User: Fold these one by one.
Assistant:
Number 1:
Amino acid sequence: MPRGLLVVFEGAEGAGKSTQLRLLADWLGSRGRDVVAVREPGGTVVGDEIRRILLDPNSDIVSRAEALLFMASRAQLVEREIRPALDSGAIVLLDRFFLSTYAYQGIGRGLPESDLRATNAIATQGLVPDLTLLLTMPVADGLARAVERGERDRMERAELAFHERVAHAFETFTTSGWQTAHPECGPIVLVDATGSEAAVFDRVLGTLRTRWPGTFPVTS
Ligand code: T5A
């Protein structure tokens, strides 16, 4: 059975994940690669409905329900989209995965990590990313970018302290000690997300090329 590649983009609000994912999907597509781009929450009919509920500023959702809704969207996306794409040999680019749950619901909301880990195992059925690119930039700059874009969603409306806890959590995740203790997350590398879109994309491509030079070749 062929096995594609699962590359996850992670980071705090407005770090440029969607932008970089789109650039990479275009880059791969123009080189004839079979690429599938999806995001969390969402990416399926059920997931998109869950996304609407989760991000609606009018939704009153307690932390445990929030975590379970993210997991439900994930379970649907993994089984319906990601697994089949990987089995067909595609490169799957995923905008957020369970590292976000550890950061937002674990450190941000304060839910026990052991509970999140167990629930996540149900949602992913053991699927581990081949690589997670963690885009980093100052929290306030990322939030400012998100605000500039328009009305803030329910998550973006959380207080600054919450977003700072989340950003700090993401930093912790890049340490080798944390990664060794969390094999379910796969390898995580930091990518500096400051500077122009093109500059960040060069870093993204450079990181991928170091690991998989044949899949991400140097071309004109
Ligand atoms: N969440 C998610 C959880 O709490 N738990 C979970 O388990 C999961 C999976 C998802 C929310 O759900 C939370 C996290 C989130 O709060 P979302 O809308 O998908 O909601 O949120 P984000 O993933 O944060 O999406 P954003 O669009 O806000 O951030 P991105 O994708 O990092 O940023 P992007 O690329 O859209 O760029 C933001 C703006 O900046 C500009 C773009 O044009 C855009 O306007 N930009 C740049 N400007 C200048 N220079 C650059 N280099 C730029 N790159 C992008």
Number 2:
Amino acid sequence: MRYNITVLAGDGIGPEVVAETLKVLDKVGAKFGHEFNYDHCLIGGAAIDATGECLPKETVDKALASDAVLLGAVGGPKWDSQPANNRPEKALLGIRKALNLYANLRPAVVFDELKDASPLKSEILDGGLDILIVRELTGGIYFGEHALKPASPDNDLGEVAYDIEEYSQMEIRRIARVAFDLAMKRGKKVTSVDKANVLESSRLWRRTVAEVAAEYPEVELDNLYVDNAAMQLVRAPKQFDVIVTSNIFGDILSDEASQITGSIGMLPSASLTEGSFGMYEPVHGSAPDIAGTGKANPIATILSAAMMLRYSLGLKEEADAIEAAVDKFLKAGYRTFDLQAAPEHKVVGTEETGDLIAEMI
Ligand code: IPM
Ligand code: MN
């Protein structure tokens, strides 16, 4: 089979980690008899430099016509002075909206070999940790009305700004269904996170999630306020299976969850729409401080490609092969620069990591 993948390498370490991922994908293609066809397109700072725009229309059109999108990372200090509507981050929000990628899956997993890397006491993580955060990605305060009003001579408020959090039942239902469908294939528990003691949008969220839950009698539903959820994540993270939450709460909680694993350089993510199409990217950012040093860990992107094979291309065995190779890499004692290494470990750079994992496929 031939698959068309839009590749958005982006900025900073993006191109480096993507190059290693394509190496691994090519090896999977050779082994399983698939042809992965890569269409490299511009996004973020790289797109601003080349075209003046952070998200060229051509990129969106090509992505829409492909089977899946693989993204490295965007942003860096070079583009900090760009106007708000043409920053690399804006490209990320723009492509999520343009491709209707409303369901963002962010696993927080503690890898067996890396359990000492977590900043939490080992007894808190005893038996491993496997949380899946399902973050709503195309609604809420990110995409509500934004405004900045000038200071008025009639009062002493100075400038005033607001951003509106708004959710429709349609948006809440569809993200809740994604969470419950995934919970059915996992631990059959969904924790919905909101701020229903304060926010009207959260009260609608909680009521609508409860309605969807009625369609899944096998799945246990728990509701937590976001402040409590943030606390529970560090106090007793193993109580969670699937967490479903709004765009902004999911942004914050997924960063927190990634830190408790101790290995953000290892964590992949998927952003999905209706059907099988999706965009796949590492949880980490563009790390401009280490770009070009050969020290970036490509594994989060390599594991994102595995998610792409599984969710968008329906290639389960091939996805398993990538995950098994990463496991083998760690078990063989290899560590990337971001991972804690003991004397018995061999620390390897970006390219060597890609070569070794490709070899282990
Ligand atoms: C993320 C990032 C983005 C977000 C930024 C870069 C716009 O933090 O993917 O979590 O807030 O969604
Ligand atoms: Mn974030």
